[in-house]
Design brief:
228 residues, mainly beta, 12-stranded antiparallel β-barrel, 15 strands, globular
Length: 228
């Protein structure tokens, strides 16, 4: 049943293409770009041990996105599929930026990575509530985003993240520094986005690069955009 649903979601992406536009998210971090009104972003992230994380965002209003994500562990392979609870995501771009000031967006992302059954939470926690700004730097197609997030309001700990992306068509170079708070748990991610068609791209990325106490992870993600 889960495989049938995944196939249907891919078919929706292919049969409802949209003209060339950027896919909003980078590797793990958001930027201040949103999906346009009556459009959707659909992403399939293939990660360790055959897991597939599906994420969809809808442009329900101008500058307002609402969506969900669904994490299926061991989706690829012969093991029993472990289905985690779907998570909500929301994003509002409230300032479009200027020549000097970055565009700004406020959002909520409930999706983490690597679910721990005993702790009943993700080992790499969700963004929770976040604020992010995005600005073009120096010359066209080079963009930088900086943001902060908080997922546990009982501790009121704020984490930071930043990213750079540079388009050399048909390739986008991406670098991230994520989960910035304690050096031991900071994460460096890097990858490339290959633009296959105006409405489909593929990400090849490495996560948690150079961490002393954790193994790096390789992921592949298929991104597509359409209209409804």
């Amino acid at each position: 049943m889960n495989k049938i649903l995944l196939a249907c979601m891919i078919a929706v992406c292919v049969l409802n293409p949209l003209s060339a536009q950027e896919i909003t998210r980078l590797i793990d971090t958001p930027n201040a770009k949103v999906t346009g009104y009556s459009e959707y972003d659909l992403r399939f992230r293939m990660y360790s041990d055959g897991g597939v994380l599906s994420r969809m965002a809808f442009g329900v209003l101008n500058r307002v996105n609402v969506g969900f994500s669904w994490d299926l562990e061991q989706m690829i392979g012969s093991e029993t599929i472990d289905v985690n609870e779907p998570s909500l995501n929301l994003m509002v771009r409230f300032f479009d930026g200027s020549f000097i000031l970055p565009s700004l967006a406020l959002g909520y992302d409930g999706q983490g990575y690597f679910f721990d059954e005993e702790a009943d939470e993700y080992r790499q926690r969700e963004k929770g509530v976040f604020l992010v700004g995005t600005q073009e730097l120096f010359f066209p197609e080079l963009e930088m985003s900086i943001g902060g997030n908080i997922y546990d309001f009982s501790e009121d700990t704020v984490y930071g993240f930043t990213s750079l992306s540079y388009v050399i068509y048909p390739v986008v170079l991406i670098g991230e520094y994520d989960n910035i708070h304690e050096k031991e748990f900071n994460r460096i991610n890097a990858g490339i986005r290959i633009i296959i068609t105006p409405f489909i791209s593929v990400d090849l990325a490495g996560r948690d690069l150079g961490a002393e106490s954790r193994d790096a992870e390789r992921i592949i993600r298929i991104n597509c955009r359409g209209a409804f």
